[in-house]
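JOB MANIFEST
job_type = single_chain_structure
chain_count = 1
residues = 248
[input]
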Amino acid sequence: MKILAMDSSGLVASAAIIEDDVMRAEYTMNYKKTHSQTLLPMIDEIVKMTETDLNSIDAIAVAGGPGSFTGLRIGSATAKGLGLALDKPLVSVPTVQGLAYNYQGFTQLICPIMDARRGQVYTGIYRFHGRDCEIIKEQCAISIEELMEALTEAWSGQPELPQEVVFLGDGVPVHQSYIEEYWEKSEKQVSFAPPHMNGQRAGSLAMCAMQMYKEGRTETAAEHHPDYLRLSQAEREKAEREEAKNSV
C-alpha cells in the first residue's frame, strides 16, 4: 500500500510518501513561507526524488481538521485536485489524531494541543496499544482548563490508564507553564515532546491514514471538505454583531 500524505493544518507544512512499512520520503517545513508557497513544491520534490509514479499510489491522505482555516483550505484544495486528477480516494485524517501518531507505539497517554486562539486549544486524548490507537477523548475545541479537567476525569474513571501524559503541538509553548503548575503536586507524570516530535508530520498522518484506509474510511475528492470544529473568525464576528443587534 502506498500513501501520499500532506498536512498544512498548523504552523508546519509537511508532505510524505509511505509504502507499506517504509517511509520513502518526508519533507517538513516550519519557516516563514505560507503553505500556499510550500506545499505543492514539497510534494513535487518528494515525488521526483523517489521516482514515484503518482498513478501508483493507493490513496491521498490530508489533515482534515481542525486547524488553521487557511491552512486547511490549502491542504484540502491540493488533495482534492490531486484526487480528481488521479482518480484516487482521499483519507481525511482528524488533525489531532494524526498529530498523536507522532507517538505511535508509546505507552503514555498522548495529548496533542494546538493553539486555537481565543483561550482555546484543539485537543484530544489518545492511547496506543502497539500500532492501534484508542481514542480516550475525541478531538474538540476547549479551554486548557477544561482539558485538565477532562484528563482528571479520564484517570478517575479509568484507573488502568497510564499515569503519564505527553503533551505535544504548537499549543505547548503557550500553555506549558500552566500545565506544569496544574500537575505540580499531583502523582501524575507530565512530559512534553522534544522539537522533532512536537509538530505536525505527514509521515505520522500517513500511518493513521493507512489504518483508516484498511478500515474502508475513505472518501472521493468531490466528497471531501475540512472539519473546522468551530466557526471562522468572520462568522463568529457576524454572529456577535447579529446577537448585539437583536438584543437592542
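[summary]
DSSP finds eight helices and ten strands in the chain.
The chain has a mean pLDDT of 93.
exit_status = 0
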